[in-house]
Amino acid sequence: MSEHMNEHMNELREAYNATGSSWGEGPVRLYGRLAEEMLDRSPVPVDGRAVLDVGAGSGAVTAALRSRGAQPVQVDFAIGMLRANRVPGVPAVPAANGDVTRLPFRTGALGGAAAGFCLNHLIEPALGLHELSRVVEPGGVLLASTFGPQADHPAKAIVDRVAARHGFEVPPWYREMKGRVDHLLGSVEAMRRVAREAEIEDPAVVETTVDAGVDTPEAMASYRLGMAHLAPFVASLSTGEREELRDQVEHELVGLPPVLPKIVVLAAVIRRT
């Protein structure tokens, strides 16, 4: 891994470690729906399979896997996210703090792997996709998703602008991800190109629009304020400042259309001789 990629990943890790419960209180609502859409595309049933949820975050993909009878195993490079997704009364799943480009599993150890909005953080996404395919047994399933080409929803600019009035500055890692990294997987053509580089055979790649259930000012505010580039800043504010920021954001989001993201989903059965 290059020095620049190491630096990028370290900045990401620090941001996500500091996000923790804020993600579960907001973005998980949207990502839960997107996880369902990704699993709907699986070419084989996941029921009974041990499936890796890589970039597990606050557990959206894990919850979707459990609902379909799979046995999820979590990996995330930000241990703060793994700690935050432990829910009282809900049995914990096996989890490891690890890197998608160097997974702590032997070749063919798992019945499947699912990367929900994880690979789009990588400067070299083919490294992660190839490593995911390595740990899946022949006949197992590999799933990956990312955001597709779309105009930014107006809530994004509004929330960032209101936060800036309170002192927020967009972190460098986020600028790089949006400017340099996002496009690497952000279309059907790009996903197919990365799949070829990762030596994934005959993947199905589709683009679809999802009703994410984020359709009120309150839901939009929770979603955007809980994102990793903003959540650490919000957490740094006093209780009164956070409440004021939240009130201002919700006020300015009134009347906006629902969030209907386009996503790109890759689905493949692993073939290995």
Largest sheet: 7 strands, mixed
Radius of gyration: 18 Å
Please bin the fraction of helical residues: 40-55%
Helix-and-strand structural type? alpha/beta
For the termini, the CA-CA separation is 27 Å
**Beta-strand content estimate:** 15-25%
Let me know the average pLDDT.
89
Shape: globular
| Count of DSSP-assigned helices | 12
Q: Which parts are unreliable, with pLDDT below 50 for 5 consecutive residues or more? A: none
Q: What is the strand tally?
A: 7
Cross-sheet strand order for the largest sheet: 3-2-1-4-5-7-6
What is the string of helix and strand elements?
Answer: HHHEHEHEEHEHHHEHHHE
Features:
single chain, 273 residues, alpha/beta, seven-stranded mixed beta sheet, 7 strands, 17% strand
Quick structural gist:
By secondary structure, this protein is α/β, with parallel strands linked by helices. 44% of the residues lie in helices and 17% in strands.
Describe this structure as you would to a colleague.
The structure is a single chain. This protein has 273 residues and is α/β, with parallel strands linked by helices. It has helices at 3-17, 21-25, 27-40, 60-67, 79-84, 125-135, 154-165, 172-181, 188-197, 217-225, 231-236, 239-253; strands at 50-54, 71-76, 95-97, 110-116, 136-147, 204-209, 262-269. It contains twelve helices and seven strands. A seven-stranded mixed beta sheet has the order 3-2-1-4-5-7-6, with helices on both faces. Helix 5 links the parallel strand 2 (71-76) and strand 3. Helix 3 (27-40) packs across helix 4 (60-67), helix 7 (154-165) runs antiparallel to helix 12 and helix 10 crosses helix 12 (239-253). The longest helix is centred in the first third of the chain and has 15 residues, at 3-17.
